[in-house]
Amino acid sequence: MGYQALYRVWRPQQFLDVVGQEHVTKTLQNALMQQKVSHAYLFSGPRGTGKTSAAKILAKAVNCEKSPISEPCNECAACTGITDGSIPDVIEIDAASNNGVEEIRDIRDKVKYAPNAVKFKVYIVDEVHMLSQGAFNALLKTLEEPPKHVIFILATTEPHKIPLTIISRCQRFDFKRIGPQDIVGRMTQIASETGVAFNEQAMHIIARAAEGGMRDALSLLDQAISFSEDEVTVEDALTVTGSVSQAFLSRLAKAIYEKDVTNALLTLEELLAMGKDPARFIEDMIFFYRDMLLYQTAPSMADSFERVLIDPEFKELAEVVPTDYIYSIIENFNKTQQEMKWTNTPRIFLEVALVKLCHLEQSSSISDGQIESMKQKIAELERLLQEIKEKGVTVNSEEKTAAQPKAQRMSKKSYKAPTGKINQVLRQATKQDLHTIKGRWGEVIEQLGQQNLKSLAALLNGAEPVAASTAAFVLKFKYDIHCQMAMENAKFIEAMATIMQRITGHRLEMVGVPENQWQQTREEFLATQSTDASDEGVQQEEDPFIAEARKLVGDELLEIKE
């Protein structure tokens, strides 16, 4: 056939060629040498990190004529047949297009047949998370106990979509994103062996744009080679990846720091005129400031930089930009990035963000002179405070007099429980009435919620009935404010009376008392009672005026207010 893409030509044929996954390849090689190959594997990780390649290498290694061996020889009939796809015993299945129950049942029926050409029959199921629930169920038993001559290798980019029953039957290997340095090393090797001239910085730009995927990096390199003439230059790499050159990023960062709005907007206009994607541009800016923050706090982590190659211009800028200011810039750019996802005019959001950032530093910065002035004022205040303490200055009588009414007014704002009503309920209270309400208190709260009074039901958090009669009940609230809000809300009181009538058969009046006042009220009530041997109840010595009123109208019509 004609030209083949680089990532196809340079697909790894040995574990040694799988870049950046040493934790996987080392384990598989040890298992091969010790002849402890499992019946099922799950390879998960981002795209282009070597999952399918590692699966094919493992298939060759277990079937190699020289096995047990840590690397396939790629010379025997089994290795070459698996590489070119001529051996039918290594079956690659795309689960995205073969995700039904029938396809899996077909595998289940054929798995019992012995391999034709090699020792092991290997099923490589790519994008296994695309299988339907029925297909997963059909695969379960076969995956758990396949014949001795069968190995399953499942590959996926979204392991969270795979049932745990499947995952528990496999040895799981998580492939990680490949580091930029590893990608650059592999691309450099390929470019050198193919005779392609390249700029080293261009390789770094392509590696960072690949975001940890070797296949993406080789595709971009292939595109850059086609775009370039004699050599893959930095400009070629920037054009192909859509990235912004570090010179532009430094120029824009300098304009923001110097509060030069005009220069910042002109730089943005120039970048957009070159066809740069606004979303990619703002991502580059976030990573630029992220790298600057790392350079300031941990210079030794230069290998972790995403967008920056340390040059004199970057060093100079990183030494003058404050760390707190970098935090603010990253936060503002991140908000703008989120807003740009839902607009058809991202350029406007970018321009507004740049103008805002240019003014942010100006409004939030404090000069050394201002700091010194503030220190002097603080020292002066501390000196005056010390003099006041030494002289023992006291508040004069007029100030005390003026402060007393204020304190009284403040104290009036706190809720005062109606002691008279509470005492009246306590005189008539019985344990049976209290148990009835307590036993159905959950039902009371539930009915409040059903009447679209959830906000009022929240007032009952921490509240509990503490006394009850056939006419009223005392409700203790944990917080004063909840008690006050409840007792001042006519709608709430009416709703509680209606619910109580529905539950107990009596329209009970609710009397609220804060927790910090209940104990004192109860103790005062008990203290005023006199014990009578002939009476099982407790009688309170009443005011003569109240006693006379009780005789005239009776308890039902009598209401005592403080």
Account of the protein in words:
The chain is an alpha/beta fold and 562 residues long. The chain has 4 domains: 6-174, P-loop containing nucleotide triphosphate hydrolases (Rossmann fold, 3-Layer(aba) Sandwich); 181-241, Helicase, Ruva Protein, domain 3 (Orthogonal Bundle); 246-364, Zinc Finger, Delta Prime, domain 3 (Up-down Bundle); 419-553, DnaA, N-terminal domain (GMP Synthetase, Chain A, domain 3, 2-Layer Sandwich), CATH 3.30.300. It is 57% helix and 9% strand. It contains 27 helices and 12 strands. The chain has helices at residues 6-9, 22-33, 51-63, 77-84, 101-110, 133-144, 164-167, 180-194, 200-209, 214-227, 234-241, 246-257, 261-273, 278-297, 312-320, 323-340, 346-364, 368-391, 397-413, 419-428, 431-439, 441-450, 454-457, 480-487, 490-504, 515-527, 544-553, and strands at residues 40-44, 90-94, 121-126, 150-156, 171-174, 197-198, 231-232, 464-468, 472-477, 509-514, 529-530, 539-540. Strands 2-3-4-1-5 form a 5-stranded parallel sheet, covered by helices on one side. Strands 8-9-10 form a 3-stranded mixed sheet, with helices on both faces. Strands 6-7 form a two-stranded parallel sheet. Helix 3 runs antiparallel to helix 4, helix 8 (180-194) packs across helix 9 and helix 12 runs antiparallel to helix 13. It is flat, with a radius of gyration of 40 Å. It starts with 5 loop residues before the first helix and ends in a 9-residue tail after the last helix. Mean pLDDT is 82; it is low at 394-412 and 530-540.
